[in-house]
Structure formats: structure tokens, C-alpha cells
Amino acid sequence: MGILNLLLKRCHGNTFSESYYFSLLSTEKGQNFVVKENIYLPEIYRICEVHGPCNGLLCLQVTDDKVALWNPSTREIKFLPQPTIQPPPPHDDIEFFSIHTSFSPIGFGFDSNSEDYKVATFVDHCFRDEEGRSFLDCRSQVHLYSLKSDSWKEIPHPNERTFVSGNSFFNSYIDGVYYWFAIDQEEGIVNYLHFILSFNFANEKFSTISLPNFGGSFEHFNLEILDFNGLLGAFVFPNEGDEKSFDLWVMNNGLWTKEFSIGPISGVHMPLGFSENGELFLEGSNHELLLFDPTTQEIRNLGIHDYPEVMRLIAYVESLVPLNGTSELEEHVVRQAVGHHQIDMGNKQV
To answer: What residues form DSSP beta bridges with 273?
Structure first.
């Protein structure tokens, strides 16, 4: 296994128009996860979501329809071409004036059969009336990109009534399969069905998986899907309150079991991921980066602050996988060394 690196997605401001960037954290023993380097990507400054890693590669959804693959180790970036797939017609052949198309969410992974990296995205087409104020109908497709062919194709949609969430704060790609939190929005049903939707990049098929029975409702609890040591995991925690407990459920041999519980811990907002030693990174109530040691029950403030629900921790292994893209230099990417002494910008460590 290669060298493990930690990237922290951050933001210069608290509005959508502000620029996002990455901080490379030190993982050397005794370094206390200080910022070694800040990485600014001018062409993709409004990174909405980060998917992966997959074999050291990251998939960046920049805007609704702009996607890039990035190898931070070789410093290569590839912007994906725009899909040219035609939208389906509306139901019942209704008359419409215009179409609003959105691309989200995204799944990114590796097809071991063809040794190809693929991106799957759900594409919604909403048909507007003449004034453009209301939607008359909506249709949904799934587009699949292949890095080998550098092209998109349409694949069958699992269910157009299904709403798929793309706002995961963890990597939910595991061994050739991507996982999303999903909701069945069938008309006439008051209590929507919540489940996990998976996509296998080798056979290009969707499947559904039941959620763990954690004894609560989604009105009061958050559930985040993640890769836990190569197994499908789910973090469950309250969505309100300054004191929270975190339950980790793991699926093994088709069954969910509660792996462990952490807390209650005061002054925390949400989990961000694990260190190699099993410590838990957390976003604090004041939106600072914390590190919790479950053995000693101690919390360390790592001195890095950001805006609410902006931080995303990405642990990736160095990789030489080529993308047939362009270099960071050509895309005007700026890597700013920080070293052991942090630069203070306002109330934030950079």
C-alpha cells in the first residue's frame, strides 16, 4: 500500500460564490495534522462535491454539468466532455416551452473487468411552461462516462420515482460499487421508503440495500454512508444538539451490526472520517477540526476553522494512474507551501 495523504476541502467564504480549495495535512508522526500545503484550482474554484477517492483519483463536480477527474499525486486533471445524449420526451406528450436539465448526484469508480474508470450521473429534465415559472413534467436519465473511450452513454434508470442524495461527507465507493442514500417518492405514500441504492461499475447494474434498523427516524437523525475498512458502513447521529453520540453500523455477509458507539461528546457537529490509528475526525460546533481518541476519550482541537458543513476530509493513497488530461500547471493550479507555521487569515488557519 502506498503513502496515505489527507486532503481537507475548505472555503474562503460562506456563500456559494466563494472559492473552495484544498489543504494537504501532514500525516507524519508528531506533526499533529498541520497544514503543509494549500491547493487552489482556479478553473474549478466552485467545487460543489468531491467523489472518491478511487485508486488515488478524485472526481470533482464543479458546477451542475462540469465534472473533472484529478490525480493529486501526478498533478494531472481531466475535464470530462459534455454529454450529447438527447433527453426523453415528457409523459403524455404534453406541450412545453423549455427544458431545465440538472446533473446530480454522481458516482465514481473502477470497472475491474475492463480496467476502466467510470462516472455515473443522474440527469433530471424538467419541462417548463411558456412563462418558465412552473414545471409541467420531469423525466430522469442515468448517464455513464468511460475514461477509456472518453465518452458518455445512457444506461437504464433504476426507478424514476427514486430521489438519490449526493451530499455525502464520506467516500461511499467500495470495491467496484458506489452507494447512495435514496428515497422512494412514489405518489400516494405518506411515509417514503428510505434505502441504499448501489451501482456496480463492472456489470453496470443498480441494486437496493435496506438500511440498518437504528431505532430512530430521519426527522431526528442523520445517516452517512461510508467505506469502513473495505465494508459498507453507516454513521448514525442526531441532527440537532450540542452533545451527540455516533453509532457506526457495518454490513457483513448481508447483515447490519452495530460496530461501536462513540459518545456522547459535547461541542461537536458531525463526523468527518477516521485516521490510520482509528481516531475520529469531527467538525466542532464552532466549525473547527477536532480529533477524538476513543481509547482515552480525549478531544484535540487541531486549530483549523472553516464555515458550516464545508469541510470534507479525503484520505487517498498516492497513485500513478494516468488520466490523459492536462497538467496542474497548464490549468493554473497554485500549490502554496505552508510548512510548520500556520498563516492566519482572519479567524481561520490556512
So the answer is: 281
